[in-house]
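Reopening this ticket.

The earlier resolution said the output was attached, but the attachment link was broken on my side. Pasting everything inline this time so it's all in one place.
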Amino acid sequence: MHILPDFLRQGLENVPNGDLIVANDEGRIHLLLKLPAAAFKLLPLPPRISTFLFLAPMPTAPVVGWCIEIADEEPLCFNVVLNVKDPIQNEILANLPEQMEVPFHIINGETLELAGTTVIATPFNARKIYDGALSCAGRITADQYDITAAKKQFERDYPVNRIASWRPF
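Inline output:
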């Protein structure tokens, strides 16, 4: 296992195991999946990964989701929601269409060490999703915009396994 750079390590310290996060390293977007050490015995490395980006316009904010499915006997599904109005997350969404591929890192949740990295293709619709999210957010007044409420409602209505069934491939 390899030591993570400090900026990634600090971002993962308070993230629970099983969570997927997106990081921006000087304009290069990375996906990180933090898993308990026991999961590495079950997870095929390198993993076979399917990924897609989606936009769900909610009344209080657009939900931009990045769904990751790791092929296994029972596929493992993860989703991360990005907020186009958050400056850091907006920068991630703006930079994503500019790169051809995204490093996908699997992190040991106990030691915060890099367990493995593979490269996945940038979602083909990254520019369209970003533009759609900006347009949707622009139609919601500042006093009505609430990504927390939108995310809660979306996650209540659409569990991650249901989202995974939407994949466009």
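Reporter confirms the inline version is readable. The two ends are 33 Å apart (CA to CA). Residues 126-138 form the longest helix (13 residues).
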